[in-house]
Design brief:
There is one protein chain. It is built from 9 helices and no strands. The chain has 229 residues and is mainly alpha-helical. The radius of gyration is 18 Å and the shape is globular. The two termini are 34 Å apart. The relative contact order is 0.17.
Amino acid sequence: MRFGLSGFIMHLNYHVDMFLLCLPVFMITKNDIGNYTVGVAAAGLLWQIPRSLGILLHSRGAVATNPIAFSRQVASTARGSIVLALPVMIVLFFAAPTLFPLVYGKSFGKAGAVLQILSPAILAFFGARIFEAGFNALGHTKPINLIMGATVLLNVILNILWIPRYGLYGAAYASALTYPLGTLGLGIAFAKINMMTIREVFMPRVSDLTPVTQRLQKVLRSITRATDR
C-alpha cells in the first residue's frame, strides 16, 4: 500500500498540470491544450530513461546486503543520469521551436516553447525518479509522500495563479519551478536518512557516468531481446 501511495503521488506530479489546464474555468483553447500535450509528451519520452534506471536500482536494492554502498550507488546514478541528459536537453532546447512545427504542423508552434520552459523540470525529474527508486528499495516511502505531496500542492497553487495570467505557459512555469524543488527535497532527505552530506549527493563526478552508461546498456539489451522475440 505504501509503495502504491508514493507511486500515485509521483504520478500526480506528472499530470496535475494537464488536468488543471483542461478545466473549463480557465478557458484554455483546444489548440493550446494540444500544444501543451505535445510538449509534455516529449518530456515523457525522456523520462523513460530514469524510469528504467530506477527499476534496475529497485531490483538491485531489494537484495542489497550493504545499504550504505547501495545508497551511494543511488546518488551516483541520480547525478550521472542528469549529467548524461544535459547535452540532450540542450540540443532539444534549441531545436524544439523548429522541430515541433516541422513534425506536427504550424499550429504546434507553442509546443516548442513549452518544452523549453519545462527543460529544468525534465532534468530535475531524472534525479527524482532515481531517488524515488532508492527510497522504495530501502523501504523509506514517507519522504516521497511528504516531499512530493507538498510539491503537488505547490504545483496546484501556482497553476491556479498562473494559468489565468499566462495560459499554457503558466502551467509550464509551475512545473519548471516545482519539479526541481521536489528533486532537491528528495536529495536532501536521502542524504539525511543515509548519513551522507548534501555535497556527496549532488556534486557530480566523472566516475558517475560509468555505472549509468552500463545500466543504460542493460536496459537497451533487454529492450532489444524483448523486440526480437
